[in-house]
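lol ok so funny story. i was supposed to be doing the assay writeup but got distracted and ended up predicting the structure for this chain instead. priorities right. anyway since i did it might as well share w the group, maybe its usefull for someone
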Amino acid sequence: MTTPVTGPPTHAPATTAPLAGFTIAVTAARRAEELSALLYRKGAQVIAAPALRIVPLSDDQRLAAASTELTRRPADVVVATTGIGFRGWIEACETWGMAEGLLTSMQSSRLLARGPKAKGAIRAAGLNEEWSPPSESSAEVLDYLLSTGVQGLRVAIQMHGEPLPDFTAALRLAGAEVLEVPVYRWTQPEQTAPLDRLIESVTTGGVDAVTFTSAPAAAGLLSRARTTGQDGALVQALRGDVLAMCVGPVTARPLMAHDIPTVWPERARIGAQVRKLTEELPARFPTLSVAGHRLRLRGHAVLVDGTVHTLSPTLMRIMRELARRPGQVRDRAHLLTCLGEDADAHAVETAVARLRTALGDAKIIQTVVKRGYRLALDSTDCTP
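and the output, tada:
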């Protein structure tokens, strides 16, 4: 079970961290620690909770039947889509006393690996792959198969937790006999409280972006929100200020089905995903010239001349209101709504004073007598 964690060490160079001041949610079940570490190094705070759980099908009759069929009648081509899946397949066959026969049958098959981990699992089993795409993309594996020809061939595909309807349909249309090998499936996490807290953070403005590394994780997040009655709020947040950052287009499909805008890198790898995030997220916040300073808002901080000034949620709400229409006066009654129902008019003055101190220069926020407050834009044509 994973829990919210703090950001990078305080000695990290905040002025150079592209994600400093942002909070990123991680929904991955596998490689969550690796993804979180990459985000830390970019300066982000991270909230991590798996949106799914991998359940091996070691006692599943479908897997046993597919393995028996391949042992009896070897495939011409075997596609390994994941390292954990291929290893789990061989381990399950070992418990049934079928591993030796299955591996012997595969020695006569052409083995394709979708990525380096699948390639490693093939070699660990004492076999050798024919080819693996540099992109780690199922689409490139499909292109390779179609380009080499599959008419009349028997193709076995080790599934990775979800169906691959486009992949298998294209092979069948090209004349292949396709055998799907279901090695594991996805289900909800055993402990759902961390995921519920993550959803709450997304819906209440505590998260700036949510990362997805698989389509089942995206579907799992939406499914859990539906179970708890938060699906409307979650979808609204992801359609609004919260960025949905996917590792690739296949991962994005469950989100796109709900008209949620999604972004992904050209290469479907988590390193590329983090680099894309460092480009996309800061670009959502314009730089303002205020009182001789360069200001840029972040999720829970303001960059003043490149230095991070972390703010409390209350002060951040006031700062967002002032920056929503830069240079325009925001009256005290309007700013009072940022402080909660129990706040009084005097609380606005106190909060603005605290905000000025937190920003390091009182001139950044200008008082307009009897009217309210505004950011002191350097532009001469700002609206009074």
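Confidence is low (pLDDT under 50) at residues 1-15, 380-384. The longest strand covers residues 154-158.
back to the writeup now i swear
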